Amino acid sequence: MRSLATDAPDGCLLQVSNLSKAFPGVVALDDVSLRVKRGTVHALIGENGAGKSTLMKIIAGVYTPDAGELRLRGNAVHLSSPRQALQNGIAMIHQELNLMPFMSVAENIWIGREPVNACGLVSHRELRRRTRALLERLGVDIDPQAEVRTLSIARRQMIEIAKALSHESELLIMDEPTSALTERDAEHLFAIIRELQAQGKSILYITHKMDELFEIADEVSVLRDGRYIGTASPLDLTRDELIRMMVGRELSQVFPRAPARAGAVVLSARALSLEPQFYDISFDLHAGEILGIAGLIGAGRSQLAKALFGLTPASSGQVWMEGCEVKLDSPRAAMSRGMAFVTEDRKETGCFLGLSVLENLEIAVLEGDFVRCGFVRTRAVTQACAAMSRLLGVKTPDLHERIENLSGGNQQKVLLGRWLLTRPKILILDEPTRGVDVGAKAEIHQLIARLVAEGTAVLMISSEMPEILGMSHRIMVMHEGRVTGILTREQADQVKIMDLAAR
């Protein structure tokens, strides 16, 4: 058991003083300071690229600062690795999940700390017992022996939280912990956070969701372009004041409510099924329309999107495109008919993290207009990718930067840009603004509205109720793999959607 020093006299658990960190071509942090008190939730907000994740990774021992100092419980500390941070009572739940998919829940949580029996072998019975006790403490019903790859994104997020809590850390860093959770799951997480506060633990909480700040945070600090802007109580700030601190400017309307000008039906599904993921799905999608898909985690929304794009083809039913029945049994077949798909998990199934921004953008268009006599027109495709990067406001030193070095929000922009380069007729968006800051969200919403105005048909899955209500012309609600209702913009409200989603 580690020996812990007492806090600083003013109750400050962590003090960050004048931290700076630079990467090639980018100053990620510039003279940043803040203080975290014991037993509080200290939220950190800012646009993508503001330096939030870099600061958290320094505190968690992932990065070493170029300048500045960390003081923990009043004592200066030098954290050169995540293991060293854990030994000092600091654990981090990363925005992008870092679990091993082919290992069990228990093995993921206790890796490197497995209990052993008298013979020195791993005691799987004790491993399961510890895991079950930890999950029960969190109020989570997950089989300790289940392979992580079989779990939903939301359940994997809860495993990450359980893993961090298993270290009994005093400072828990949460980077976008509710990005894949429903409102019900988020409330469950908030209850866990309040319990941890009561135990005297501190939470550093990164979020892009304004409502969460006012519900859970005791203090909020704002970063912009790598600089510290200020700290205040959420009780002393309005939502608009926080946004101005974040972006340094006024934002236009977040949800552009363009009138619906639906054209011809471009995609129809009839009795589409892939048991046990979804059953008997029927709908029409029109050109120039956003059809939102709402529902709770496990409703089958993402599985439906994957089936339409040919990733996991439906086992029965028909799909019609522009009046002709089609067989979408592969992504290539879907792309050849003008379909594009932005996946919900940019790390697992979206971005190629080891490749550059340019390679991630161009990978879907290395044929057609950009190929002549079997050779890629390198200059043309690079110019198109550069133009798309500028259009989406991707923050990167240049197109040759590895995409893994970009913030999560900028990775999301690159992923969206990849598919926009294909000039799709039908665009499937699964959580298009997950982990994206309020300023970038507004830009993405404006872009989607412009595409729809030009005739693109959009099928949009979102777990954020304001986004579904604000962007959709019609809303299809799913529950346990079935469609429970389709509402027009005029008919829809939060109560009706939740009623259909919980049937």
Largest sheet: 6 strands, mixed
CATH-wise, what's the superfamily of the largest domain? P-loop containing nucleotide triphosphate hydrolases
User: What gross morphology would you assign?
Assistant: globular
Proportion of helical residues? 25-40%
Q: From the 3D structure, determine the CATH topology of the largest domain.
A: Rossmann fold
Shape-level CATH architecture of the largest domain: 3-Layer(aba) Sandwich
Level-1 CATH class name of the largest domain: Alpha Beta
> Total strand count, please?
22
- Unreliable spans are 1-6
Strand content: 25-35%
Distance between the termini: 49 Å
Q: How would you describe this protein?
A:
With 503 residues, the chain is α/β, with parallel strands linked by helices. It folds into 3 domains: 12-247, 3-Layer(aba) Sandwich (Rossmann fold); 251-338 and 424-503, P-loop containing nucleotide triphosphate hydrolases (Rossmann fold, 3-Layer(aba) Sandwich), CATH 3.40.50; 351-416, no CATH class. Helices cover 33% and strands 25% of the residues. Strands 6-7-8-3-9-10 form a 6-stranded mixed β-sheet, with helices on both faces. Strands 16-19-20-13-21-22 form a 6-stranded mixed β-sheet, sandwiched between helices. The model is unreliable at 1-6 (pLDDT under 50).
